[in-house]
Each structure stands twice: as C-alpha cells, then as structure tokens.
Amino acid sequence: MRYQPPFSITPKIIALIAQISERVGRLTAYADHEQALHLRRINRIRSIQGSLAIEGNTLSEQQITAILDGKRVIAPPREIQEVKNAICAYDKMNQWQACLESDLLQAHQILMAGLIDEYGVYRQGSVGVMKGREVVHIAPPAQRVPALMTNLLQWVKNSDHHPLIVSAVFHYEFEFIHPFADGNGRMGRLWQSLILQHWNPLFADIPVESLVYQFQQGYYRALQQSTEHSDSAHFIQFMLERVLDAVLQATPQDSRQVSPQVKNLLDVMIGEMSRAALQHALGLRDRKSFRERYLKPALAQGMIEMTHPDKPHSKLQKYRKKG
After folding, report:
1. Which of 219, 189, 233 has the alpha carbon at shortest distance from 207?
2. What is the 8-class DSSP label of residue 308?
3. What is the DSSP string of 46-103?
4. The pLDDT value given to residue 256
5. What local confidence, expressed as pLDDT, does residue 34 receive?
6. pLDDT of amino acid 38
C-alpha cells in the first residue's frame, strides 16, 4: 500500500483553495507588468528575512539587501552566513525537483554550510522540538528517517491532491519527521515554496515566509494542534491562510476597484487608530458590519496593516495606512 499522510480536507480548506486560485489567476495578468519585475527582488529579500527571523536571525531587510549587493555589514558572523546561504539556496530553487531526495539534501547542504557539522545528510541522533524549556515533540528515531523521507517524497511525486494541499502536508510531515540535526524549519518553508513554485512560477516571487514570520505563534500552534489530532488539517488551513495573505499583498491594486467603504475608512484614518476609534470616526454602530465591509476588505487589499500582526485579536491592536 502507498504511504498516505494523515490529513482531512475541510470546507474551509476547499474555500481557501478557491480563493487562492482566483487571486493567482488575477495576479498572473500582471506577470509582465513593470511593477512585478520591480517587486521580485524585494519579495525575495522578504522571504529570506521572514524565514530566518523565525529561527532568531536579527538582520533587517536593509542589511540583507546590502549582503545581496556584496556590501559589508556589521552583524554576528553566523547571522551573515545564514543570509548568504539562504540567498544561494533561493537562487537555486528553479533547479530542484520537490520529489528528489538528492535535491533536498543539496538544499540543506547549501542552507546550513558553515553553521553545523551535519549538513546535507540526515541526522544520526535523536532530536526534540522545544518550546521554551518544554519538549513539545519527540521526532522519530534517526534510523527511521531515511524510510520516512522516501515515503514522503514518493507521496509528493504521486499525489493527486491540489499542489496547495501537497505543499502544506509536506511541510507539516517534514517538521514532524525532523530529518536533520538542525535547519528543519527553514528547510520546510523553503520546500513548501518550491512545491508552490512548481504549481505556478509566480510563487518564486511571493514572500509567503514573511507572512509566516508575522504569525509565527499561530504557526507553532497549528503544528502542535495537528500533532495532537494526528491530522494536519489545522496546519493546512493555517498555511493556506498565509498563502492567501501573501497573494493578496502581491497583487497590484487598481484604485478604481476600491469600494466606497474602504475609501471612507482611508479618509478618516490618521496615524495609528484602534478599531473602536475608526468605527467612531465613521459614525458606525454595528461592529460586525464595520469589520466585514470596511476593515477586512482594507486589510485584504493591502491598504492598511495591523500594528500587532502576530496578535490579530489583541486588545492593543491598532491599524494604520500601509506604505
């Protein structure tokens, strides 16, 4: 029997796939637009910064840009090495096949060269995933890793599921197996982006990783929930929501498509304002109507942003114009 990762497909997941597919189709219309070319480099830098920041790298987009341009940057040598490795890995993505173990090992070798001793090979010892001082996941024994990865990569190759689902399932299963001594998080995100890129080349330039960084607590929570339920549906939904966010932000906006409600919201917004302050400024009493007709569309279109994107329901949350 073929290996089948345990996951279910919920109505919410189906809806997200439809939304992403529709938006990707719209974004494809801008593929040759000058703005898309201008954003390509910026989005690649955001991808690298977001993925490495989750692992504790403190370098900014400006510093990563300087490294990309060959300029000298004053920062911890390890963090500079991480960035240089990531730049090289992302540059080689179009040469790799997501189902090939040799490509996966080469990618890990490039990402982790000069950072750990065991790079480009599967781990030889046991590993656990820590949350603070608490062990939240014990990975399978090292001797099982080669077989588990073979099964997973074969599933990626032969799966009939939508690439959006395949990419998220792979990402979760990869993190569960934790095949390397270190670098599993950045490898999982890189390989999900690679699978998405094979579905549509536009994903080579859409910084999904930066959105994952903004919601990293939700990222770890979704991983843990999926493990607790032995079903990666939680993680699939979380990642598809981040993919949709990234696609929405990457789509050039036509000012003629802005609704009157969003335009009114932008007109009253001064600096950083809370939900209550915005609602009061617009003279609206119905909180649900304000959220659905004004706030959510403005966020989805990239017109405004949260001051605390990693805590969307925070009492301290405020909103401001973007850009």
Report:
1. 189
2. S
3. HHHHHHHHHTT----HHHHHHHHTT----S-HHHHHHHHHHHHHHHTGGG--TT-HHH
4. 43
5. 47
6. 53
CA distance 58 to 53: 6
Buried b (16+ CB within 10 A) or exposed e, 86-105: bbebbeebeebebbeeebbb
Which residues are within 8 A (CB) of 91 and not within 5 positions of it... i.e. 6 or more apart?
Answer: none
What are the residue ranges spanned by the domains of the chain? 11-250, 255-321
Q: For the chain, percent helix, then strand, then coil, each to nearest 5?
A: 65, 5, 30
Average pLDDT over residues 242-255: 73
Contact yes or no for 7/234 (Cβ under 8 A): no
Q: What integer is the mean pLDDT of 56-62?
A: 89
Half-sphere exposure of 9 (CA within 13 A, CB side): 11
Digit-coded pLDDT (tens) for 273-287: 999 999 998 988 888
- Look at domain 11-250 and name its CATH class: mainly alpha
124 burial class (0-12, 13-18, 19+ CB within 10 angstroms)? exposed
Give 255-321's CATH code, choosing from 1.10.20, 1.10.10, 3.30.70, 1.10.760. 1.10.10
Q: What is the pTM of this model?
A: 0.74
Pairwise CA distance, residues 105 & 122, whole Å: 8
What is d(CA 90, CA 45) in angstroms, rounded to the nearest whole number? 10
Residue 300's contacts (CB-CB under 8 Å, 6 or more residues apart) are 248
At 179-198, the pLDDT tens digits run 999 999 999 999 999 999 99
Query: What Cα–Cα distance (Å) separates residue 125 from each residue in 26, 180, 254?
Result: 47, 9, 53
| Least confidently predicted of 93-102, 200-209, 311-320 | 200-209
